Amino acid sequence: MMMKSLICLSLILLPLVSVVEGLGGGGGLGSRKPIKNVSDPDVVAVAKYAIEEHNKESKEKLVFVKVVEGTTQVVSGTKYDLKIAARDGGGKIKNYEAVVVEKLWLHSKSLESFKAL
């Protein structure tokens, strides 16, 4: 009887373990993953959003140039840590670090931080 119970328990738990491992994509749920295609339109949209929000808050006039690199992390939404190249008011291109959390189900984004590197 005990052996049957163990087999049944194994059959129930094994698929659950596989699903949980699959969610994390090899690094576990919540692990950071490098963005492979920084030119992806969704990534570029998040970077442009970060610059627009920073410009509103700081009254600067940064202009998006490109996403240099970044990572994503699934937390309560998708957290983007991006290194963004932007042109300042004097025409000089500098790199900035932006953290944006996007919650697709709420159709919302929030700029968590933005700083010059």
Enumerate the spans where pLDDT stays under 50 for 5 or more consecutive residues.
13-26
**Averaged pLDDT:** 82
Major sheet attributes? 5 strands, antiparallel
CATH domain class:
Alpha Beta
Which percent band covers the strand fraction? Answer: 35-45%
Oligomer: single chain
* Number of distinct beta strands: 5
Keywords summarizing the entry:
117 residues, alpha+beta, Nuclear Transport Factor 2, Chain: A, 5-stranded antiparallel beta sheet, 34% helix
Secondary structure elements and pairings:
Elements: H1 2-23, E1 32-34, H2 41-58, E2 63-75, E3 77-87, E4 93-103, E5 108-116
Tell me what you see in this structure.
This protein has 117 residues and is of the alpha+beta class. It has one domain: Nuclear Transport Factor 2, Chain: A (Roll). Helices cover 34% and strands 40% of the residues. It contains 2 helices and 5 strands, in the order αβαββββ. The protein has helices spanning 2-23, 41-58, and strands at 32-34, 63-75, 77-87, 93-103, 108-116. Strands 1-2-3-4-5 form a 5-stranded antiparallel beta sheet, with helices on one face. Strand 2 (63-75) and strand 3 (77-87) form a beta hairpin.
